[in-house]
Amino acid sequence: MSEQLAQLVRKNVRELIPYQSARRLGGNGDVWLNANEYPTAIPFSLTQQTLNRYPECQPVEVITRYAQYAGLTPEQVLVSRGADEAIELLIRAYCEPGQDTVLYCPPTYGMYSVSAETYGVATRTQRLTTQWQLDLPAIEQQLDSVKIVYLCSPNNPTGNLLNAEDIRRILTLTRGKALVVVDEAYIEFCPEASVVSWMNEFPHLVVLRTLSKAFALAGLRCGFTLAQPEVIQTLLKVIAPYPLSTPVADIASQALSEQGLRLMRERVAELNTIRDTFIPRFNALACVEHAFPSQTNYFLIRCYDSPTVFKNLWEQGIILRDQNKNPLLGGCLRISIGTEKEMECLYQALAQFGPKGERQ
Hints:
Elements: H1 3-8, H2 11-14, H3 22-25, E1 31-32, H4 60-70, E2 77-80, H5 82-94, E3 101-104, H6 111-118, E4 122-125, H7 136-140, E5 146-152, H8 164-174, E6 179-183, E7 205-210, E8 223-226, H9 229-238, H10 246-255, H11 258-283, E9 288-291, E10 298-303, H12 306-315, E11 318-319, E12 321-322, E13 332-336, H13 340-350
Parallel strand pairs: 1-11, 3-4, 3-5, 5-6, 6-7
Antiparallel strand pairs: 2-8, 7-8, 9-10, 10-13, 12-13
């Protein structure tokens, strides 16, 4: 970029480090286990042919079906271009640049910080404990000027649930002062842990959901915000006029039908079984210091020489997600749950490494 053009860019954007998605990181592989996607394509057929018309801003059938699925009213649901758009909408609608602050607890999903920085909103962090839980005393000391607290449970990339009572404590501390946004992108893998039922008790609770994971529709880009009607109405002021294209709304509606929900739950049961079968097997490998339990469609392994292992797997066309740069995750690689064949392929590849990353 020329110096003249560079000077036109907002200062905070010039200095911004963009989120490194799995696709941006690239790679050439046969076994893709780096993006927490469902490993095989799910067939859908388009039924709406009115592509000459603009779509509804909030497609009624999609909203109604998701509300029924979540146990809410349609007035408590907003649909957007993935949960990523919802993260941004909340910041745009509720945070004053240069005045308010967003708080999040790394290691966690990277878009909370990127979205805040993009809009010139300050961020504050409080690391999770060594057990990957909320450090409540430290968080309590940092809540002044905080307008939004982002909590991810199950957490990405650690795969564990945050303690429910800790989330409840944060909600109590922030009542009347801030929104608490609980990102439940992976909740279908442990639905009993959802906090959606707390909304009446805590009106400032907002829950994010997505069709990208358990619904096997990462390529669709369809997410949901669940909140009190007042919050939804505020977000509708700042959302794009047509956030969902007609084909997206069409497929989303099908995925949320009774049959779609049944198939989703079957996929979740399948992935959970594969996960729970392979974690103990990975734990027994020479190069693996520890394979961590998970409540999601991915899990972490800590390797004795993770850079060497990661590089060798990459060269074999087995693409994982390196977590070494994240706090508390030194030596960790994240593994998305693939098919049984893909997981066996990864297992056999890891079995070739000794405790120093050398080939055995």
